[in-house]
């Protein structure tokens, strides 16, 4: 029969391995949240932050909060397992359970709100197209530059196609289109070009693919965290019991 001390050593090893994975995943969330918080001109911020709608700010704060808690919790778990401090192990396991429940709730919320978020994504894209080139909204130029970069790099025009630009009221004449809708290096908002020389594809498919890829990465990190936490909670509980047994019967 394996001695309790040997069980403790094995459990400490695996607990620290999974705790290291947990910390790495937590740092990924922290980095992603920091990127959203600091870089206000990324595509997520452009399409999800307007007026009273500050979805990106909420998401970044949530990711920063979860990432910070995971980092702190990992340190507590490492110290508790190495030093075999039972109160730290209990704290570690309790926080793990709390974070696990929080992540499950967030995952369910994202699934329930997915369609709403998709509609918001499209509505905000249309809003940016309508405001594009408005001289009274000079503070929006970074947003328009991002739209130009998307159209130029993806060789697309508008959300669904070039006809969407007919709704824009900031042109000198209704036949003008953004210079980024053609193979042009001109540094101005609109160009006079024939309709048949513009990119025929809309950008919606590319934007949705980009969005889905980023959500997929975030989902993969979340699922990996949940699986890792199941192992961590189980190992921590077993380690706690064996440490307590070892203190009562140290020779077993």
TrEMBL record:
<keyword id="KW-0812">Transmembrane</keyword>
<keyword id="KW-0472">Membrane</keyword>
<feature type="transmembrane region" description="Helical">
    <location>
        <begin position="87"/>
        <end position="112"/>
    </location>
</feature>
<comment type="similarity">
    <text>Belongs to the tetraspanin (TM4SF) family.</text>
</comment>
<dbReference type="GO" id="GO:0005886">
    <property type="term" value="C:plasma membrane"/>
</dbReference>
<keyword id="KW-1133">Transmembrane helix</keyword>
<feature type="transmembrane region" description="Helical">
    <location>
        <begin position="12"/>
        <end position="37"/>
    </location>
</feature>
<dbReference type="InterPro" id="IPR008952">
    <property type="entry name" value="Tetraspanin_EC2_sf"/>
</dbReference>
<feature type="transmembrane region" description="Helical">
    <location>
        <begin position="57"/>
        <end position="80"/>
    </location>
</feature>
<feature type="disulfide bond">
    <location>
        <begin position="157"/>
        <end position="179"/>
    </location>
</feature>
<dbReference type="Pfam" id="PF00335">
    <property type="entry name" value="Tetraspanin"/>
</dbReference>
<dbReference type="InterPro" id="IPR018499">
    <property type="entry name" value="Tetraspanin/Peripherin"/>
</dbReference>
<protein>
    <recommendedName>
        <fullName>Tetraspanin</fullName>
    </recommendedName>
</protein>
<feature type="transmembrane region" description="Helical">
    <location>
        <begin position="215"/>
        <end position="235"/>
    </location>
</feature>
<dbReference type="InterPro" id="IPR000301">
    <property type="entry name" value="Tetraspanin_animals"/>
</dbReference>
<keyword id="KW-1015">Disulfide bond</keyword>
């Amino acid at each position: 029969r394996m001695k309790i001390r040997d069980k403790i050593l094995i459990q400490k090893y695996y607990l620290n391995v999974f705790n290291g994975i947990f910390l790495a995943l937590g740092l990924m969330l922290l980095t992603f949240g920091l990127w959203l918080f600091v870089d206000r001109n990324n595509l997520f911020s452009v399409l999800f932050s307007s007026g009273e709608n500050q979805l990106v700010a909420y998401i970044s704060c949530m990711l920063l909060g979860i990432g910070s808690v995971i980092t702190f919790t990992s340190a507590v778990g490492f110290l508790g397992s190495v030093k075999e401090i039972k109160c730290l192990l209990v704290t570690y396991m309790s926080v793990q359970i709390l974070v696990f429940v929080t992540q499950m709730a967030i995952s369910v919320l994202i699934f329930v709100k997915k369609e709403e978020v998709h509609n918001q994504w499209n509505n905000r894209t249309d809003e940016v197209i309508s405001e594009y080139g408005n001289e009274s909204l000079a503070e929006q130029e970074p947003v328009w530059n991002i739209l130009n970069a998307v159209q130029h790099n993806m060789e697309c025009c508008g959300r669904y196609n070039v006809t969407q630009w007919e709704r824009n009221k900031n042109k000198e004449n209704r036949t003008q289109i953004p210079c980024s809708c053609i193979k042009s290096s001109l540094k101005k908002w609109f160009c006079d070009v024939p309709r048949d020389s513009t990119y025929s594809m809309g950008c919606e498919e590319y934007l949705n693919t980009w969005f889905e890829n980023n959500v997929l990465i975030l989902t993969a990190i979340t699922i990996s965290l949940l699986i890792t936490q199941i192992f961590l909670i189980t190992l921590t509980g077993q380690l706690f019991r064996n440490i307590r047994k070892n203190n009562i019967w140290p020779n077993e």
